[in-house]
Design a protein that fits this description.
The structure holds two protein chains of two kinds. Chain A contains three helices and seven strands, in the order H-E-E-H-E-H-E-E-E-E. In chain A, the strands form two sheets. A four-stranded mixed beta sheet of chain A has the order 4-7-6-5. In chain A, strands 1-2-3 form a three-stranded mixed beta sheet, covered by helices on one side. Chain B has a single domain, classed as Ferritin (Up-down Bundle). Chain B is built from ten helices and no strands. The radius of gyration of chain B is 18 Å and the shape is globular. Chain B starts with a helix and ends in a 6-residue tail after the last helix. The chains are: A alpha/beta, B mainly alpha. At the A-B interface, loops of A face helix 2 and helix 5 of B.
Chain lengths: 164, 251
């Protein structure tokens, strides 16, 4: 069976695959899907991990395969590529807004001092009340991609999506 | 540089990440505070992810059909190529942080240089890893300052950790013949240059922490050639026991 769906349709289809740890985001919003192409009769989807040890990659790969299998009889291959390395700059504006609404402060855009030994403390807005007075509790949070903050105004703890 | 030498070189990098990652995993549920428990295990996860990429690639370079799992779980102590520093026991929190601090500063410089390698896959792994190591290095450096410039007790303890672990720092910074070959082939990193930068960076943090930089003297070595301390065997026994007991098990 030959697919009647275009590559563009497949990109659209993959927006139904959610990140298992942040279910408001899909893998296209996240910038995890890097390429989709036909290689003879094999549909090749290239994905990239957010962090080297991201434990969600196997599930994401499985979910991509299963949704494509629902629409195709063909072979689907999900490949992983490390280069160019994933960056939070690939998160779409839409994804940032979804994160904020979900209670996770989105990463800052394109900060230039990512490699500095001691980064200046950034102003991270509380995603719950919008206050700018927040404190970093720990640079490591509930998943590799998040840091742990608390709001000094509404006193709620929250996650900040780390900028890498 | 011959293929088997390139394999050895990549194995060293993979084993460094794997052994330190496994060590940090031992802190799971035992951290001094919840945030630190999570931080140490997050760092462990990054390192094990890096180890997977490196060992997977080492297996491809070797071309003998060994994948990342075969290399991680079915090699004995003498076949491991990590530096001895990284297999040292976790000790108290100060010991763990000093070990991490010495390695993070090395790894950060190393991966920055490795991004200039003529091997595309090593460049890709380095470019990925550097983002993670940047966070690790900041974390351990901040703790060195906090412990060193903290209470009298924390200062005494972390100075003692630094003095005891310093003798293990030389191995990763001192090139042997394989390091030199890798560098000449344009694959690896020039450790002589790296060592100078490492000293400047480490000294800067130690001074800010009001600690005393230990003097360079005799240094432990041998891990890169498979001669390890007694500790590695215990790590491997724990890490390898399930796959060795059930070698045909599949997920």
């Amino acid at each position: 069976m030959t697919s009647t769906l275009s590559i563009e349709d497949i990109w659209k289809l993959l927006t139904e695959v959610k990140d298992p740890e942040i279910p408001v985001l899909n893998v296209v919003d996240m910038g995890i899907v890097r390429n989709i192409q036909w290689n003879d009769d094999v549909l090749e989807v290239t994905i990239t991990p957010t962090y080297s040890g991201c434990p969600a990659m196997d599930v994401i790969s499985l979910n991509i395969k299963s949704i494509l299998h629902k629409h195709f009889a063909e072979n689907v291959a999900v490949k992983s590529a490390l280069f160019p390395p994933w960056t939070t700059d690939w998160l779409t504006d839409d994804a940032r807004e979804k994160l904020r609404n979900y209670g996770i402060a989105p990463p800052e855009k394109g900060t230039s001092d990512k490699s500095a030994l001691f980064a200046e403390q950034k102003v991270i807005e509380c995603p719950k009340c919008g206050a700018k007075e927040t404190t970093k509790v720990s640079e490591f949070g509930s998943t590799s991609c998040k840091a742990h903050y608390k709001c000094n105004v509404c006193l709620e703890p929250f996650d900040y999506f780390k900028c890498i | 540089m011959e293929q088997h030498e390139k394999f050895e070189y990549i194995l060293r990098l993979g084993d460094n990440a794997l052994v330190l990652g496994q060590r940090l995993g031992e802190w799971c549920g035992h951290g001094p505070a919840l945030e630190e428990d999570i931080a140490l295990t997050n760092i462990s996860l990054d390192l094990i992810g890096q180890a997977r990429s490196l060992l997977d690639y080492a297996g491809q370079v070797e071309g003998a059909g060994r994948d990342e799992d075969k290399l991680a779980f079915f090699r004995d102590v003498r076949q491991y190529r990590n530096v001895i520093l990284l297999e040292q026991p976790n000790g108290h929190f100060g010991d763990t942080i000093v070990r991490q601090f010495l390695y993070d500063h090395f790894a950060w410089l190393f991966y920055n240089e490795l991004m200039k390698s003529n091997d595309d896959q090593l460049v890709a792994i380095a470019a990925k890893s550097i983002k993670e190591v940047t966070y690790h290095r900041r974390h351990s450096s901040e703790w060195i300052i906090r412990l060193g410039d903290g209470t009298a007790e924390s200062k005494e303890k972390v100075q003692d950790s630094l003095d005891r672990l310093w003798v293990y720092s030389g191995e990763m910074l001192t090139p042997d013949s394989l390091d030199k070959k890798a560098q000449e082939a344009g694959i690896g990193v020039d450790l002589d240059v790296l060592k100078k930068d490492w000293h400047v960076n480490v000294k800067g943090v130690i001074e800010q922490a009001t600690l005393t930089l230990p003097e360079d003297g005799w240094m432990h070595s041998g891990g890169k050639k498979g001669m390890h301390s007694e500790h590695l065997g215990y790590i491997l026994a724990e890490m390898q026991h399930i796959p060795r007991a059930y070698p045909d098990a599949k997920w």
